[in-house]
């Protein structure tokens, strides 16, 4: 009897050992070996967590793989710190629960946090399954901020990272949110949501530095890229945006905030967006700083408000009428060309409490596609430095 038990125990041990070995092939952890099923119905969150924990504990570079196929994934958090660099490669389509009430632990679907040297790759898709059921519950306007509907992907305190090739569709709210991140490149990513989906920003960055977004396509119902407080050393290049609300710095000044500086937006194309490149701050704001922001080599196609500084930003129209106290300085808009869907193609509305300083406008060629006359500009509380050719004449002809 004792012998039999020993034999049983031994063979069980072997089984476990070979199982553990089979789960990893040279540091590659395939979720299928952790019980994931590509049937589009079975929740793979436990399998993904188990594969992640194993990969994260390996002392050499490792990888978690989600192969082609359709998977159901409920709310999940992949946390570090890890022993070495980890890559998560998504080749399949991950679907979030469509019902917003299925998200209990804070408003996020997938969170990556406290990971150094992290890569998210693969031609796979994160489908947030937003839609009427979620978007009609959006209360951001009434509440004044968004705090309920889940964000597709959150990166919290992720450093030295690369996010490439993935697609995020139909998030219930913002698609990708960065907080306290450093040195991450986003390359060749796709964001897709309908023009009418509320607050579905493409990528929102807050309190992060050294972030590059490049060679990507963003179509959504809010800002394609929004750079919030504490965005520093951010480069956005070769991004195509539209539909959407454009590429924005802000909105700033609502809370006690870290300064924004070192922003470059270049070689981007905006199509059918409700704004082009803009800086927005709330009126009656707290003190703040936004400086060293450069927008250049940008093509506008049928864009409303192509070039915009708006220091009276107040979407709900329920703001106290007092000047913004966010100081905007060292800004340039250069080589911006194409078509404007509104007659005022260049608008610089700076704070009447703290005027904008050192704003350069160079080589603008924007034509109004409507019939009410040529494109114009409108400026207040700013004396821009004008260089190169100007159509419309910046801060010249006013309406
Ligand atoms: C930034 O992150 C990338 C990707 O992990 C890494 O290769 C690079 O060394 C990092 N740069 C710095 C300055 O740490
Ligand atoms: C960009 O991502 C797509 C998948 O979304 C992939 O098919 C393509 O090869 C990637 N392009 C590059 C240059 O890596
Ligand atoms: C981002 O781009 C800037 C300018 O091209 C470069 O200096 C910086 O190293 C890049 N950062 C990353 C994370 O690749
Ligand atoms: C934009 O593209 C031009 C032409 O390819 C290039 O010279 C310039 O360096 C690019 N700007 C940035 C900031 O990458
Ligand atoms: C801009 O939007 C209009 C109206 O929805 C559409 O017909 C047109 O194709 C869009 N333009 C581009 C370049 O996508
Ligand atoms: C321009 O954009 C407006 C919406 O802002 C749209 O109604 C119109 O069809 C677009 N025109 C073209 C030529 O794409
Ligand atoms: C703006 O640029 C000037 C000249 O380069 C510099 O002295 C000043 O410190 C900059 N302002 C801010 C707030 O960075
Ligand atoms: C401005 O754009 C129009 C239309 O694309 C073009 O015909 C014109 O030559 C441009 N002007 C300058 C000064 O580049």
Automatic annotation (TrEMBL):
Key words, A-Z: Cell wall, Cell wall biogenesis/degradation, Glycosidase, Hydrolase, Secreted, Signal
Subcellular location: Secreted, Cell wall
Pfam families for the chain: Glyco_hydro_28
Matching InterPro entries: Glyco_hydro_28, PbH1, Pectin_lyas_fold, Pectin_lyase_fold/virulence
GO biological process per UniProt: carbohydrate metabolic process; cell wall organization
Signal peptide residues on this chain, from the entry's feature table: 1-22
Active site positions, chain numbering: 245
Primary residence: secreted
Gene3D superfamilies tied to this protein: Single-stranded right-handed beta-helix, Pectin lyase-like
An MF annotation (GO) of this entry: polygalacturonase activity
EC code(s) of this entry: 3.2.1.15
TM regions (residue ranges): none
PANTHER family: PTHR31375
Physiological role: May function in the depolymerization of the pectin in its walls during pollen tube elongation, or in that of the pistil during pollination.
Family assignment from sequence similarity: Belongs to the glycosyl hydrolase 28 family.
The protein's name in its UniProt record: Polygalacturonase
Organism: Herrania umbratica
Lineage of the organism: Eukaryota, Viridiplantae, Streptophyta, Embryophyta, Tracheophyta
Gene: LOC110425303
